[in-house]
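User: Can you help me understand a structure? I only have the sequence.
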Amino acid sequence: MLESKDGILWLRDIAFVPSIHGRVAFARETRRVFLGGRFPTVAVELPESLGPRTIEGIERLPKITTVSYEESNGTRCFFPIDPCDSIIEALRLGLGESCALELIDCDVEDFQRTELVLPDSYAVNSLGLARFYEAVRPTLQLPAPGSQDDQRERHMAGRLLDILNGGPRGLPALCVIGLGHMEGVARHLEAALSEGRSVLGEISTVPPPFDVEIHEVSDEESLYHILGELPYTTYLYELQRSSITLDPFEAVDKIKELLLEARDRYHTKHSQEYEKISLGSFQNLLQLVRNHCLLGKRLTPSLYEMVIAAKGIAGSEFAIDVIETAKRYPPAHPSEEPNTAHEPGEAYTDTSGESGSLGEEALFEDSVDPPETGSNSGVEAIQVKKRYVDEAKIWKRVRLEPPPPPRDVKRWRSTWNPNGNCSWTPEDVLIENFAGHIRSRALLESGVTQEHLEEFKTSLKDGIHVRETIRNLHLGKIIVKETPPPRGQVGAVVIIYEPPDPTRFPWHITWLPEFEWESVLAFYATAYSDKLIGPGIARSLYGGQLFVRPDHLIEDVWSDTTLNEARDDAERLVLAGVLHSSDAYVAYVAATAPTPRMKEYAHRWGKKIIYLPLSGFSRSTLQKLRRFHVLNGKPVRGWANLYIR
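Assistant: Let's start by predicting it. Here is the structure, written out as tokens:
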């Protein structure tokens, strides 16, 4: 019945755009088909009773409105003026080109809303509209004869027949209808063209509603339920539509823009370098989102998949920023500054329609719309439903842990016992492993400095020295190297992440080992009391560290009077490492080389400082290792993993 021409479905002089309501891919296809031809008439799947209010809502765009009326059973049936909906796009284009607008659907007494299970609409971009429809058509079931959908399809076929019989001045026509109605409308229209209108049978008429109203939706929480796409995606589509470019709307690129905007919101609240999401981490985030899409057999991610990926890469707080960004629709609040950060403890409304703090368990849904059990109108709860058929929705659960509200932080700070502090064991393991890595690397560096080169005679020793061999190539010599084992071990490791600053790093302490594998750890760090993240759990940042394994008990590094000749905290750590190390070497990791005073002090005690540049280590690894947590007593370790990411 339908004929495909240049990717467009035609039946006689009518071009059809079968679409999934609320999906930007079909709004894009509607725009492509309309701008690619000349259509004096535009027909859409809406009843004439909703026409005036719908046109009024379109004129208010980008402000989002809904057109609604009350059914006999008290349910409020509404149609959102959604910029990403193909019907709204067709009407906007038709109004802009002064086309004849035909609203071909019929009024019904009680709209029967159904849901379809359909492939990802992003496939339309690569397959084309005609091939996409042919692929999904076998899965679409025709309505039962005499059912409401059958009556509606007969009515729409009759209206399209009138357009065809109205003369060539109104043709060709563009018809935008739901994907599930395409087969039935085409069958009825073809039969009517062949055998006459009588085959459409008696079509029941229902008086149009008299209380059709239009409502402006300014609450972003409501927009999240009403729109077919995410509100921020809708906003990006409006931006591109109003620009002078004719580039097609790429949904995947807009998802990246959404995540970048969420990252900027996160960085607004976390301005420290170690707190920021690096480029590599963001790339891993995109890869994780892609993997979730593959597992879910999707081409584009839903909000749930983006939230899960964001939580896995940067934690719950960034996942919450992704949610808040996805729900933003700036035209709803023109005076609001973009990139407004969400304050900890601020109230929000989750997709289940219940208000609560950002720390509660929340339900999130793929392309959510209001539950048909009711929505909160501000005065009373009323039953609502959309007046079109769209994709089936799936509820999913995710638990997020945001920053604690200020009242909880105040309570935790008031009950903190400063004499009961201890570390978190998983972080102790990580930093000890890192210190061991530095010891091994320092030994290697000390061996390189004693490297001996000689001409190859009978043995390759420790291998060919390529650079010297090439340099002596004209002499026909092969130069080999020999690296003797270092005499001694690395007894102390000093890491200086940042130069000492009493205002930034006021906390000084020496922690004695709790387990056999631990070193004595002396450090200066930020004040842990400034960053409480849970009951008895605080977060701090190392400025400098000393790892040493002495063969005797040592005095607190920061109160030891024998170290008073040190000029600053970094020098004091080096002097303590030299003094208490029982081995010949002290590894020193910093942005700059050790000072002559440090070297002189080490020489005085018969030690040698091996310098490793801080730039020789992974920046992201250093940023993760220098952030640590302080627990107010060993019992806190039992629940610390619930708050530490």
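Now, to help you interpret it: The first strand starts at residue 3 and ends at 5. The chain has four domains: 3-216, 220-367+397-403, 419-445+490-642, 451-485. Let me know which part you'd like to focus on.
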